[in-house]
Amino acid sequence: MKNYLFFKRPIYFLLLNFIIWNIAFIPFVPASVAPYVDETYSSKPDLYDALLNTFFPISFVILLNASGESGSIKNKLLPLLDDVLYNTITWVIPLIVSFSYGDLLAIKIFSIVNMCLHVICAATAIYRWEKIGTCKFNGYVRTIYMFLVAFPDIAIPTFWIVNITTRHTFDSINMMFLILFVFLLVSLISFFIINLFYINYKLASVFVVIYFYAPNIIQTLLIILNWPINFYFVKACVFILVLSLTRNVSYFTDKVPNEFLATSTTLTQASLSMYVRSQFSNEDQKEIIDEKIDEMKRSMDENDKNTDEIKISMDEKDKHMDEMKRLMMDEMKKSMDEMKRSMMDEMKNSINEMKKNS
Fold first, then answer.
1. Staple partner for 270: which of 169, 239, 256, 351, CB 3.0–4.6 Å?
2. What are the b/e assignments for 125-160, b being 16+ CB within 10 Å?
3. 90: domain range?
């Protein structure tokens, strides 16, 4: 009877009874965690890593497919992004590291001086607010170009050579980077000395591009290896470095739109791109001409082949016509001979008949 009454009660009454029972008695039951749960695990690094790995391809697709059409907002945003990325790699990352570690006074001073010089260049170019197509390579443009090309070549390798040697940190990593910076500086000096006697403009254009990009890349890798603040800092630095390299490559693989905003980094990389293209354009034209000549030769060979085939076909036709002519002549000759023989026989028969009658 009691069970019967229990099941006859409304559903909401049973649900309410269950909730009240859990609230009243569950706190007295000792809490337990499933054995497969890792309570020491923190999801923040993996989440950060997953987000960056997700945004890597998305960012590359956006940047590589960015159009340079006239009037597009990308013509202003992309140059500003290039400026931000370049300055971040050049002085923001070293400055953050110098403030994060207490014994990096030299790096702090170098980064602050570096910051002031680059900010002046960037602010000057943005204040002018010119476009790449209308910007002339003189005055402030030449000054910014010469500074941004010369500073990574000379200042960055020299500073890090002095810094590594004075700190006496000659482990394997620092020795590797010391060799790289010494190689850059020595090759730069050798390059200038050789150019006093002989100038190879094509080789010079390649070296200028290397000297512009390589020091900042090597500096960033050295900082990440020697002073990794935390996991997030390292991942952010790698993301910024790869993103910057992606944008840098676009200046040499695609034509720089004339509508691009002439920021300090943009006009420098556009000038480098134009310089490299101008040195290799003759070679490109020669290759194009050679390709056209080869194509014409192939076309002529194809025409000759077709002509030979036509000639062979005509010869075959002539041969066939000669054969038909010969056959017809033989048939006509045979027919004429047959007619002649028949007529002669008839004439003979007629003469014989006449003789008999006479």
1. 256
2. bbebebbbeebeeeebbeebbebbbebbbbebbebb
3. 71-278
pLDDT tens, position by position, 244-295? 888 888 888 878 888 888 899 999 998 888 888 888 765 555 555 666 677 7
Residues of the chain with pLDDT under 50: 1-7, 67-70
pLDDT at position 334: 81
Residue 328 counted as domain residue: no
pLDDT of residue 117: 93
The per-residue pLDDT for 78 is: 86
Q: What is the pLDDT of residue 350?
A: 77
Look at residue 224 and tell me if it is in a domain.
Answer: yes
230 in any annotated domain:
yes
Residue among 140, 96, 87 nearest 114 (CA): 87
How many domains does the structure of the chain reveal? 1
Residue 321 is assigned to a structural domain of this protein:
no
pTM for this predicted structure: 0.65
